[in-house]
Amino acid sequence: MLGFASVVLAVWAFLKCAAQFPVQVPNTYPHAYPGMPQTAYGPDWQNYFEVTDTLPNVTFPLARNFAGNVGVNRADHPNATLFFWGFEKLNGSLTDVASETDPWIIWLNGGPGSSSMIGLMTENGLLQVTGNFSIVENEFSWHKLADTFWVDQPVGTGYATSDDTGYVPDEDQLGRDFVEFLSNIVAIFPSLASRPLYLAGESYAGVYIASLFFILPPEILTTCTQPYITKAIFSTPNPPVRLAKIAIGDGIIGDDTTHRVLPIVCALLLRSVVSQHICKAHCVQAPRRHISVYLRLPPSTICLPGQTYVYRDM
Ligand SMILES: *[C@@H]1O[C@H](CO)[C@@H](O)[C@H](O)[C@H]1NC(C)=O
Ligand SMILES: *[C@@H]1O[C@H](CO)[C@@H](O)[C@H](O)[C@H]1NC(C)=O
Ligand SMILES: *[C@@H]1O[C@H](CO)[C@@H](O)[C@H](O)[C@H]1NC(C)=O
Ligand SMILES: *[C@@H]1O[C@H](CO)[C@@H](O)[C@H](O)[C@H]1NC(C)=O
């Protein structure tokens, strides 16, 4: 009886929760600071984006860095922007057009809907915010390997902005926005057009960046509904960047079904005594054919079961 009551309670709680959606999302606007160029994006925007003010609680010298909101070229949503904060490996390495062969890195946090400032300020960036809000230098910051951009996306995430009807309805829009953002970033920092891009991220950024499909030929990429940035880059006739490598840490790469049968999930769950019964249930009940169908390399040429999140509802 108790079990039944719990189920009823859980269903009631779920319905109550679901009834609150969709939530009203706000308008957010990119801030126009003094001196904003009135021209189309180009190298003359570098000065505008260069961070020259001293930052609160930063007591050590910073690598030369650039930050701001850059549009995603959606005609009906002029305030749809992504936010970037880019740090140079060497003084001038981002603005010097001669650095054609040097790689550059983009880092994305996951969520969906997590700001990549989390990565910049608590994980792999130069500025590490401590528990008492002082800031210490991370000597292992990734910008020491290559010019690195931490990017808030999709629109409306973190410092990225959107008007209330401009939020992405699915990850195909997310991918298109990201490619348009890249075309503008490349207009501002022209050397990035030819330099090898290492697109990296963690957690849900695995879905943003790629599922196993990233190595599929374009004709299949364009027919799959599976969402991500690499798909958008590869299905753009003249992509603005040269994607060289991707890296995904603790990533989601497929859909729920796929993850349910990932052997690694069981390995992780087994570490917790409480979760052992969950693990057993998953492993015993998992249709094992999913492993052979969805988790082989090269991947099967069919689409994974679709998973398109509606961000508004999350
Ligand atoms: C864009 O943002 C500006 C404020 O910077 C605002 O005045 C304008 O109405 C916004 N446009 C749209 C279409 O939301
Ligand atoms: C970078 O180089 C410029 C010009 O050579 C110099 O004025 C500036 O102080 C340097 N910045 C850093 C962070 O070293
Ligand atoms: C803040 O935390 C850091 C790192 O834990 C420590 O070194 C520093 O002394 C603390 N500062 C203050 C004002 O408590
Ligand atoms: C700067 O650090 C101190 C602790 O060292 C903290 O109390 C203060 O809130 C921080 N200031 C900002 C702007 O974060």
From TrEMBL:
Keywords on record: Carboxypeptidase, Glycoprotein, Hydrolase, Protease, Signal
Single GO biological process annotation from the record: proteolysis
Gene Ontology MF terms: serine-type carboxypeptidase activity
Residues spanning the signal sequence: 1-19
Domain of life according to the entry: Eukaryota
Catalytic activity, EC: 3.4.16.-
Residue intervals passing through the bilayer: none
Similarity comment: family membership: Belongs to the peptidase S10 family.
Protein name according to UniProt: Carboxypeptidase
Lineage of the species this protein comes from: Eukaryota, Fungi, Dikarya, Basidiomycota, Agaricomycotina
